[in-house]
């Protein structure tokens, strides 16, 4: 199932978001914000989450979150789906706003577990920091 979703995302990215981007296999280069890795959602599963591609970006998690605005955690989930690692790293401080209260997870209509996605992103950011 994940492969089908990934192929749909890859198709969407390569057909609909061509402006300012050049394709290089499974990676798209975008000059202002770095690169986009199609396989990032799969890579994130090593940090503990494999549900991020279930999200269809309805915004329920952002609407229910009592702590933050500006489309958090929805924005971070979308960054994972399109493979925008650089944008996640640029906005990494937002990840630590989440207190893991579980409201987003309980209200997600697709059971995408946004709280676990945020936790996996924290692990991803920390693993990169430890390697540097």
UniProtKB/TrEMBL annotation:
It comes from the Bacteria. It holds the Pfam family Fer4_8. Residues 86-112 form the 4Fe-4S ferredoxin-type domain. Keywords: 4Fe-4S, Iron, Iron-sulfur, Metal-binding, Oxidoreductase. This is 4Fe-4S ferredoxin-type domain-containing protein. One of its GO terms (molecular function) is 4 iron, 4 sulfur cluster binding. PANTHER family: IRON-SULFUR-BINDING OXIDOREDUCTASE FADF-RELATED, IRON-SULFUR-BINDING OXIDOREDUCTASE FADF-RELATED-RELATED. GO terms for cellular component: plasma membrane. It comes from Desulfamplus magnetovallimortis. InterPro entries: 4Fe4S_Fe-S-bd, 4Fe4S_Fe_S_CS, HdrC_iron-sulfur_subunit, Helical_ferredxn. The lineage of its organism: Bacteria, Pseudomonadati, Thermodesulfobacteriota, Desulfobacteria, Desulfobacterales.
